[in-house]
């Protein structure tokens, strides 16, 4: 693959990383969010502050962590605090600008499910569960969600709401008394969805080059709204692609894969 | 007063069938060796507590030690599902597992409340989530000063907490560092705390503000070098990421799981025996 060719996952990761401004304090989920956040740190946002729920504040890992408590996070952090402190002082204390989350499933109001597929008491698939997400989604000033787009993930109705987006839409989130601003962007391998300012319904506002609107609609379990002024996502620049591929190569060398999890 | 005790005796005398037991660790310092000893001794009907149940909980659940699990994220970090946990929840094998499910913020606060000798934890949490619909232990109370609605959940007060740490001195004072998770809170929330350590030294030489658990707050300190494996102890060992990946196919199938547990845990006398047999298994694979 030459420098100016890129995969769907790469444009998703680069597009997600671009949303993270320099100096932002970001509470990072493991996996795709951690990849995008570290790419931001290694490119346009060297002063981004990455906080992981296991305790590291200001982590600057040299390779992507396989788990949320990898030694590299602790050894490169400005400080390491206890998990209760992370959730009580730093998240509930209102110090997080961006919560960066992944999800197994999402609905049109950006509520997310990471708990079960099927009924809770007799699940078809038991997923890992909430982890830190419910309070990150509720208390960060804004939330970015990154996940691949397909009909299994983008569903009309979630079997379980693990973490709140805009609930039933409109002002439902504010009425429920949830303090943070909620999701402002859902970045996928096909485009970027943002909530309508009034209805809060996710709307396709940017489409990745080479992807058709039909393709995105086909990958969505509800009748997806398309913005009147639909933009085309800027292609990843060579510097970002090089930084991403170098990071992934270092990671693969260190532990053989890029995925990640809590625990 | 914590006595320097062999792990087998600590587990045998301090953990009883039916106890509520928390083996805590947040990727780092997970007390695997102690979990194996619980399995060897055939402890039953345990209520297991853990923010992030991973491989050792998969093993405890698959071997039928647990009646109930209180948790907030159950998975194999970086790999995928816990197949024994899923089998217990989805198919009731080896028997039905009751689950009580929280968020990390809830669990972390519940341990703090337990260590603080309070009946419940108070946090701004769970709003908009379906968790309160399936967990009757998540309730909401009104702030007496502002009227704000806040979440309340019972404190976690384990009968026994087990953690792993880097060092103890000869009197049983314990020093741990790196990613500490909720281990200090979990140890102080428990009626009895067992700590396995990498080594016993003459003096801890702990800097001020270091995380030290004094001997008089602990029930037993057990020297088990490498006892977090395949988790790790910062400045002593590295996480064995390959083991976490290799666990996936072993745990997928009931028979391969049982055969593995028999060979590596039930038929080994202690943690050193486990390490020896695991080494033989790995050598056989790579031939």
Relevant terms:
heterodimer; A: 263 residues; alpha/beta; Glutaconate Coenzyme A-transferase; 14 strands; 27% helix; globular; disordered C terminus; B: 287 residues; 10-stranded mixed β-sheet; 3-stranded antiparallel β-sheet; 10 helices; 34% helix; CoA_trans_fam_I (chain B)
The CATH class of chain B is identified as Alpha Beta
Measured on Cα atoms, how large is the radius of gyration of chain B? 19 Å
Any guess at the CATH architecture of chain B?
Answer: 3-Layer(aba) Sandwich
The helix-strand sequence of chain B is EHEHEHEHEHEHEEEEHEEEHHH
Q: How far apart lie the N and C ends of chain B?
A: 49 Å
How does this structure look, described?
The complex is a heterodimer of chains A (263) and B (287). By secondary structure, chain A is an alpha/beta fold. Chain A is built from eight helices and 14 strands. Chain A has one domain: Glutaconate Coenzyme A-transferase, CATH 3.40.1080. Chain A has an eight-stranded mixed beta sheet, with helices on both faces. In chain A, helix 1 (8-18) crosses helix 2. Chain A is globular. Chain A starts with 7 loop residues before the first helix and ends in an 8-residue tail after the last helix. The relative contact order of chain A is 0.17. In chain B, the strands form two sheets. In chain B, strands 1, 2, 3, 4, 5, 9, 10, 11, 12 and 13 form a ten-stranded mixed beta sheet that branches. A three-stranded antiparallel beta sheet of chain B has the order 6-8-7. Chain B has a single domain, classed as Glutaconate Coenzyme A-transferase, CATH 3.40.1080. Chain B has 287 residues and is α/β, with parallel strands linked by helices. In chain B, helix 2 (32-40) runs parallel beside helix 3 and helix 3 packs across helix 4. At the A-B interface, helix 3, helix 4, strand 9 and helix 5 of A face helix 4, helix 5 and helix 8 of B.
């Amino acid at each position: 693959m030459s420098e100016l060719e890129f995969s769907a996952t790469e444009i998703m990761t680069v597009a997600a990383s671009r949303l993270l401004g320099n100096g932002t304090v970001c509470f990072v989920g493991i996996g795709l969010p951690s990849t995008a956040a570290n790419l931001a740190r290694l490119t346009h946002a060297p002063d981004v502050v990455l906080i992981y729920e296991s305790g590291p504040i200001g982590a600057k890992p040299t390779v992507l962590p396989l788990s949320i408590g990898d030694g590299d996070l602790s050894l490169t952090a400005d400080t390491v605090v206890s998990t209760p402190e992370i959730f009580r002082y730093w998240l509930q204390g209102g110090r997080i600008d961006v919560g960066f989350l992944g999800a197994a499933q999402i609905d049109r109001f950006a509520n997310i499910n990471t708990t079960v597929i099927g009924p809770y008491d007799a699940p078809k698939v038991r997923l890992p569960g909430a982890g830190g997400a419910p309070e990150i989604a509720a208390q960060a000033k804004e939330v970015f969600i990154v996940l691949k787009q397909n009909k299994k993930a983008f569903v009309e109705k979630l079997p379980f709401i693990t973490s709140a987006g805009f609930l039933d839409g409109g002002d439902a989130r504010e009425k429920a008394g949830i303090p943070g601003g909620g999701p402002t962007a859902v970045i996928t391998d096909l485009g970027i969805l943002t909530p309508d300012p009034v209805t809060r319904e996710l709307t396709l506002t940017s489409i990745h080059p080479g992807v058709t609107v039909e393709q995105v609609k086909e990958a969505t379990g509800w009748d997806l709204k398309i913005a009147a002024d639909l933009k085309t996502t800027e292609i990843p620049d060579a510097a970002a692609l090089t930084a991403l591929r170098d990071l992934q190569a270092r990671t693969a060398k260190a532990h053989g894969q890029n995925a990640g999890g809590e625990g | 007063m914590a006595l320097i005790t062999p792990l087998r005796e600590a587990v045998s005398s301090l953990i009883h069938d039916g106890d509520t037991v928390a083996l805590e660790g947040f990727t780092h310092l997970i007390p695997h060796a102690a979990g194996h000893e619980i399995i060897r001794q055939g402890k039953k009907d345990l209520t297991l507590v853990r923010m992030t149940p991973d491989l050792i909980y998969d093993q405890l659940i698959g071997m039928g030690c647990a009646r109930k699990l209180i948790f907030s994220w159950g998975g194999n970090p970086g790999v995928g599902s816990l197949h024994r946990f899923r089998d217990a929840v989805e198919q009731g094998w080896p028997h039905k597992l009751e689950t009580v499910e929280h968020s990390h913020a809830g669990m972390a606060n519940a341990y703090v409340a337990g260590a603080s000798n309070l009946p419940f934890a108070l946090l701004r949490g769970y709003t908009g989530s379906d968790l309160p619909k399936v967990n009757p232990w998540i309730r909401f109370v009104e702030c007496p000063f502002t009227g704000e609605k806040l979440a309340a959940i019972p404190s976690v007060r384990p009968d026994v907490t087990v953690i792993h740490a880097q060092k103890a001195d000869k009197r049983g004072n314990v020093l741990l560092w790196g990613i500490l998770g909720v281990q200090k809170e979990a140890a102080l929330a428990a009626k009895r705390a067992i700590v396995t350590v990498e080594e016993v030294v003459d003096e801890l030489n702990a800097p001020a503000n270091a995380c030290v658990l004094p001997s008089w707050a602990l029930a037993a300190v057990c020297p088990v070098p490498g006892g977090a494996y395949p988790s790790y102890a910062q400045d002593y060992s590295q996480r064995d990421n390959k083991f976490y990946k290799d666990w996936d196919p072993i745990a997928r199938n009931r028979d391969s799981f049982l055969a593995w547990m028999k060979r590596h845990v039930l038929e080994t006398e202690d943690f050193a025996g486990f390490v020896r047999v695991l080494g033989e298994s790995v050598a056989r694979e790579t031939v």
